């Protein structure tokens, strides 16, 4: 490269500031694109002169030499030696950055990296890496894998220490796509993958997988270990950016967003691109279900030290390793009586084994995450068919005792259910496994694949005995794809769930997974299958006796209890047997009343069941339960139902509706639909009006409810909203839901079933302006 004219050095007294001037000029040149485009366009003498004062450690001089010797036909070994020298300055900073708190340290703690970037080092390395792809010349020397590796390591170290570098690399599409092509080289795969992951994490715009050159053949060239690492990179490309906190987003905001995004999002397009790669899902299923012993030999564990620190910049992983190794060592030491061999053997043998296990778990976490995202995406049915065909569920069932739930992991406190936590690999693995089960069985007939042959036969027998037809999905289940072994996956899950410590956060996910097996149209046989395994008593123990305080866990247990009891006489009998004192009943009701947002689905199930039982009074068992069960007697009393209705309507308003609390609105509607069926609607509306007057805020409650129902219409009558869920869960036809809402919103003030008739003229439009969205 030709050098700019050498700047003359002025008299010595200006020297103190001239250091600053160089920096200002470089920075200015970088920003404006004029002036010095990189620090290397200065004389070596000048740089040497400043170097000592500025504590640059000779980095600008090294870059100067690198720049001079980095044209196409230059001696690559010379380039390599300079890069290695630079690397030694930067890797120390990166190491200390990681061991301190990543990303919180300031640039000042990484002066070498800062200098390297300031003098154009990052751009220069990108140029050296990409140069072969930018030239038509064919006979220039090929860069060795080692040079590529070292360039990537230096860039990664810069990214660790300076977020600005990560962001600027992320904004260069050409470089990001180029990195993907480097992944086809086994020797540089790990460095490339680590760098890509960092870069994609800060990109403003989601990358389009379709744009990666030869994506299918790239993925097909990966071995299983690389495929697992690739999944880690993929996770960013297939997840909706703000999905992190789905339950907490207001529905108003989500609906507004849907209006603007009519075309499939980037992440949806990326999901399709993955599904179109031949053999992709099949290989993920193999990876998810392979045994630790099947993982390729120990060679993969002897990664270079640097690869370890990039893979494990998570201290928790190392802690887990040591903890597992020590536990395994203690186990084997109790088995071997010979004292002298003790010192040498157990830890030494169990560390490589624990490493293998942790490694395998880390791979599986990434794979399960990708499968889970695909299972809840738009291509859900296609993914379901593939997961069934490639026997994911029986495969996971065979790993359950040996790997997934090897032993009770020490309990950890629950994060908000969507926070991405940096838990130990074992904990994330369990949570991802439970989320996968939840997504797999939620409203899908494939859920029966979670059982084995004996358990399926048991379901048929339950239906036969109760004289009800078998569920169609059960009849259609392909017996070649179900679980084998003594127990199916669902029953294994139940047994660990019962042993889970009271405050363990796994309870939340376990309950969600079991609940999703029951969701959809209520199946009596499914409920009885779980009742016979003591699930109802376990739930009641948790709610009443275990002193559980976690709202998340309680909510998931309430929801599960609702699904287990809905329309089921046996459940109410068992409830009554367990809750056999006034004191226990009061504790139960206190838990329910302490947060209706959490318990309203259960309340809805009780009210629906009561309504059905009242129409079946020719059945002796039903009459018996109605007269004996404390819970049903409580709900029979109209004043109790009214109190619940007041509270439900009071908790929410249109501005605060979310995916989580919209259930309060639907539960209040269920109360009113059942009232309407019995010609009692006007009675309830009048009670709401009287409540307003006694509370001295006329119009508030009813106007709020009116606004909520207007929103309900807009939300649920939208063509892409799924109304079958409401229909299935309530056994009330959706047409009746729509009709009831229309009747309540009728503007005719003479109608006794219209909310408007119960609001005085003066208070009619309270809060209406808020609704114009």
TrEMBL record:
<feature type="region of interest" description="Disordered">
    <location>
        <begin position="1"/>
        <end position="20"/>
    </location>
</feature>
<protein>
    <recommendedName>
        <fullName>Transient receptor potential cation channel, subfamily C, member 4 associated protein a</fullName>
    </recommendedName>
</protein>
<dbReference type="GO" id="GO:0019902">
    <property type="term" value="F:phosphatase binding"/>
</dbReference>
<dbReference type="GO" id="GO:0031464">
    <property type="term" value="C:Cul4A-RING E3 ubiquitin ligase complex"/>
</dbReference>
<dbReference type="Pfam" id="PF12463">
    <property type="entry name" value="DUF3689"/>
</dbReference>
<dbReference type="GO" id="GO:0006511">
    <property type="term" value="P:ubiquitin-dependent protein catabolic process"/>
</dbReference>
<dbReference type="InterPro" id="IPR022162">
    <property type="entry name" value="TRPC4AP"/>
</dbReference>
């Amino acid at each position: 490269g030709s050098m700019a004219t050498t700047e003359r050095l002025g008299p010595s007294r200006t020297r103190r500031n001239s250091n600053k001037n160089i920096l200002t000029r470089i920075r200015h040149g970088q920003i404006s694109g004029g002036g010095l485009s990189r620090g290397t366009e200065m004389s070596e003498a000048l740089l040497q002169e400043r170097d000592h004062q500025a504590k640059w450690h000779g980095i600008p001089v090294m870059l100067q030499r690198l720049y001079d010797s980095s044209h196409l036909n230059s001696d690559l070994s010379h380039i390599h030696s300079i890069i290695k020298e630079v690397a030694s300055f930067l890797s120390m900073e990166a190491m200390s950055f990681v061991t301190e708190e990543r990303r919180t340290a300031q640039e000042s703690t990484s002066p070498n990296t800062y200098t390297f970037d300031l003098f154009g080092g990052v751009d220069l390395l990108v140029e050296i890496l990409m140069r072969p792809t930018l030239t038509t010349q064919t006979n220039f020397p090929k860069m060795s894998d080692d040079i590529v590796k070292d360039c990537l390591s230096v860039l990664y170290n810069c990214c660790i220490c300076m977020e600005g570098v990560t962001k600027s690399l992320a904004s260069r599409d050409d470089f990001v796509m180029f990195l993907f092509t480097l992944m086809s080289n086994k020797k540089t795969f790990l460095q490339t993958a680590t760098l890509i992951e960092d870069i994609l994490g800060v990109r403003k715009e989601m990358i389009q997988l379709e744009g990666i050159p030869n994506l299918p053949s790239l993925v097909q060239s990966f071995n299983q270990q690389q495929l697992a690492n690739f999944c880690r990179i993929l996770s960013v490309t297939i997840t909706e950016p703000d999905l992190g906190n789905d339950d907490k987003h207001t529905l108003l905001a989500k609906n507004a967003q849907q209006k603007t995004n009519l075309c499939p999002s980037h992440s949806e397009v990326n999901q399709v691109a993955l599904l179109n790669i031949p053999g992709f899902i099949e290989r993920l299923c193999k990876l998810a279900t392979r045994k630790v012993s099947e993982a390729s030999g120990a060679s993969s564990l002897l990664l270079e030290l640097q690869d370890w620190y990039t893979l494990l910049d998570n201290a928790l992983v190392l802690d887990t390793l040591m903890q597992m190794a020590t536990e395994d060592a203690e186990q084997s030491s109790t088995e071997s009586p010979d004292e002298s061999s003790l010192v040498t053997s157990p830890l030494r043998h169990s560390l490589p084994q624990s490493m293998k296990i942790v490694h395998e778990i880390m791979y599986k976490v990434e794979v399960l995450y990708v499968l889970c995202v695909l299972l809840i995406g738009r291509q859900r049915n296609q993914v379901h068919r593939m997961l069934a065909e490639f026997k994911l569920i029986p495969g996971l069932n065979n790993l359950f005792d040996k790997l997934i739930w090897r032993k009770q992991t020490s309990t950890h406190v629950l994060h908000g259910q969507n926070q991405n936590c940096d838990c130990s690999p074992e904990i994330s693995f369990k949570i991802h496994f439970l989320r996968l089960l939840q997504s797999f069985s939620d409203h899908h007939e494939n859920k029966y694949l979670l059982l084995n042959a004996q358990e399926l036969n048991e379901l048929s027998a339950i239906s036969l005995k109760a004289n009800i037809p078998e569920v169609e999905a059960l009849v259609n289940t392909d017996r070649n794809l179900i679980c084998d072994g003594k127990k199916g996956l669902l029953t294994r899950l139940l047994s660990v769930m019962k042993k889970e410590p009271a405050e363990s956060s796994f309870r939340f996910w376990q309950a969600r997974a079991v609940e999703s097996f029951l969701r959809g149209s209520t199946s009596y046989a499914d409920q009885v299958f779980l009742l016979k395994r003591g699930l109802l008593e376990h739930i009641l123990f948790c709610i009443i006796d275990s002193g559980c305080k976690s709202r998340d866990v309680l909510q998931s247990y309430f929801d599960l209890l609702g699904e287990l009891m809905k329309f089921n006489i046996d459940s109410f009998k068992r409830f009554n047997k367990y809750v056999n004192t006034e004191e226990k009943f009061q504790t139960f009701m206190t838990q329910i009343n302490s947060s209706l947002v959490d318990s309203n689905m259960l309340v809805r199930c009780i009210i629906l069941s009561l309504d059905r039982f009242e129409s079946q009074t020719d059945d002796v068992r039903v009459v018996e339960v109605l007269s004996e069960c404390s819970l049903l007697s409580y709900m029979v009393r109209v004043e109790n139902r009214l109190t619940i209705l007041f509270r439900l309507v009071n908790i929410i308003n249109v501005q605060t509706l979310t995916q989580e609390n919209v259930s309060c609105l639907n539960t209040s509607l269920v109360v009113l639909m059942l009232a309407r069926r019995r010609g009692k609607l006007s009675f309830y509306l009048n009670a709401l009006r009287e409540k307003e007057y006694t509370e001295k805020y006329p119009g508030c409650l009813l106007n709020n409810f009116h606004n909520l129902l207007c929103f309900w219409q807009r939300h649920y009558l939208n063509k892409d909203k799924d109304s079958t869920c409401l229909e299935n869960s309530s056994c009330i036809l959706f047409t009746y839901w729509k009709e009831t809402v229309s009747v309540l919103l009728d503007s005719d003030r003479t109608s006794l079933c219209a909310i408007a008739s119960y609001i005085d003229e003066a208070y009619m439009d309270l809060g209406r302006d808020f609704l114009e969205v």
